[in-house]
């Protein structure tokens, strides 16, 4: 990978990782897609997502699946890990979390399309599985 491809990346390769204590969309980083002429799929499986119920303060655990068809940008995975970690102390309903993740990633990457799905562990006998798809409609 060329230096120009990784010039803006600040988190990858650091000897110490500082985990955010609050919601931190600014931590997301991207790098140039070397194959923008190809229409392809990127799938990210994030099995350790946590946030807090905004009413009870109890932890909600989920596996987050992110899928997108990139244009010019790809998300850097360590920044994504830290971004998702930033929800850990955030009071947020599962549906809100999934939509927020989709909105933040879509703004960062401007892909052809992006999907985010949350598979939240059952609470009170009900598993919540919200999903959202955002499309970059041609003008």
Search tags:
single chain, 139 residues, alpha+beta, GTP Cyclohydrolase I, domain 2, 4-stranded antiparallel beta sheet, two-stranded antiparallel sheet, 3 helices
* Topology, number of strands: 6
Mind telling me which CATH architecture this is?
2-Layer Sandwich
Classified in CATH, the superfamily is: GTP cyclohydrolase I, C-terminal domain/NADPH-dependent 7-cyano-7-deazaguanine reductase, N-terminal domain
Which sequence of SSEs, written as H and E, runs from N to C?
HEEEEHHEE
Tally of helical runs: 3
Helicity range of the residues?
10-25%
Structural class computed from helices and strand pairing: alpha+beta
Please list the strands of the largest sheet in the order they lie side by side.
2-3-5-6
How would you describe the shape? globular
The pLDDT mean sits at 92
Question: How does this model look, in words?
Answer:
- By secondary structure, the chain is an alpha+beta fold.
- It is built from 3 helices and 6 strands; from the N terminus they run αββββααββ.
- The strands form 2 sheets. A 4-stranded antiparallel beta sheet has the order 2-3-5-6, with helices on one face. Strands 1-4 form a two-stranded antiparallel sheet.
- The N and C termini lie far apart (33 Å).
- The model has no long low-confidence stretch (mean pLDDT 92).
